[in-house]
Amino acid sequence: MSGDGLVRGTPTDSSQIQLVTITPQLLAGDHAATLSAAVPQALLSYKPEPYRVGPGDTLYITVWDHPELTAPAGSQQQTAANGRMVRSDGTLFYPYLGSVKVAGMTLEQVRQEISAKIAKYVERPQVDVGVVGYNSQHVTLQGAFMKTDPQPITTAPLTLGQALGTATVNADQANMSDLILSRDGQDYHLDLASLNNGQGIAQDIYLKPGDRLLLPYNDTQEVYVMGEVTRPMAVTFRSVADLSLTQVLGRAGGLNPITSSGKEVYVIRGAKNLENTPAKVFQLDARSPSAFALGDEFRVKPGDVVFVGAAGITRWNRFVSQLLPAATLVTSAATANYSATH
């Protein structure tokens, strides 16, 4: 093996494999990288602007001491009945003034506009403007939510945490490791488990008019456990952050106490794209209790193959010739099965 971690030799193992030992130093680096990349700075730095009126909104305009202007339908009517609908051309009708262009204005700008125009008919008018119907700006939701109705942007800023709380995540079906927030033509991929880690990060992300939230389903989020384990299987999980190597082995019934080699616990990552990028193979020596502590900190990812070698397999070339084709076959078959059923 060369100093860069790549195995040199036959075509089976040259430049296709990068062997990495799972150590405390590796886990510390991965943890720091995960935290720093959890939320793009562009999302954290966005601050909502004052609400701007748009077509479809309904405004309630109060002119104090002039009920005939404030509530022409009668004060006994509901507030919405006396509201002023902003038409598709961005205007609304107001007594004495006719059509007034309000689209794109803040509420304060609308108040000033109405006050200046109505002053020709009302001495020193005191005008107030509020929104009683928000219909012009929304955040859309798709995927594994219990409620996918569009959520309006209002004068009160809407955070990601509030939107998720209203939509209610379908925790059993959602791929919580890949919430996609689409904004201005760019997709941001977020891990919900990282956002809800007790630091309240989701409450610090403000949503913008036109944002789209897509929460994929978890039907393709699997880790494949092979080799000398009690029950070889595909393990489904919801979030990258909530499933460790130790948990994966536990769900598979643990290492076979008779046939397995505790020294040869491998996690193969990237076997589907060998032509372009070397696959990484992480190795854990699971013969001591401390090793399982490391395994508990190592987070698996969708498409990973966990392979436990048999006792007596010591030559690296034999490992590569047996393991890598199997890993590629498993992930390729899973992809083909998903494509055929969708």
Q: Can you characterise this structure?
A:
There is one protein chain. This protein has a 6-stranded mixed beta sheet, sandwiched between helices. Strands 8-7-11-9-10 form a 5-stranded mixed beta sheet. The protein has 9 helices and 16 strands. It has helices at residues 24-37, 41-45, 67-70, 107-118, 160-167, 192-195, 245-251, 289-297, 316-341; strands spanning 17-21, 58-63, 84-85, 91-94, 98-101, 127-133, 138-143, 151-152, 179-183, 186-190, 212-215, 222-227, 233-236, 260-269, 279-284, 305-310. The chain folds into 3 domains: 17-37 and 219-341, Outer membrane lipoprotein wza domain like (Outer membrane lipoprotein wza fold like, Roll); 41-48 and 138-215, Outer membrane lipoprotein wza fold like (Roll); 58-133, wza like domain (wza like fold), CATH 3.30.1950. The model is unreliable at 1-14 (pLDDT under 50). It is an alpha+beta fold.
Task: List the keywords.
about 350 residues, alpha+beta, Outer membrane lipoprotein wza fold like, wza like fold, 3 domains, rod-shaped, disordered N terminus, sugar transport, cell outer membrane
What topology emerges from the helices and strands here?
Layout (H helix, E strand, L loop, with lengths): L16 E5 L2 H14 L3 H5 L12 E6 L3 H4 L13 E2 L5 E4 L3 E4 L5 H12 L8 E7 L4 E6 L7 E2 L7 H8 L11 E5 L2 E5 L1 H4 L16 E4 L6 E6 L5 E4 L8 H7 L8 E10 L9 E6 L4 H9 L7 E6 L5 H26 L1
Parallel strand pairs: 1-15, 7-11, 12-16
Antiparallel strand pairs: 2-3, 2-6, 4-5, 7-8, 9-10, 9-11, 12-13, 14-15, 14-16
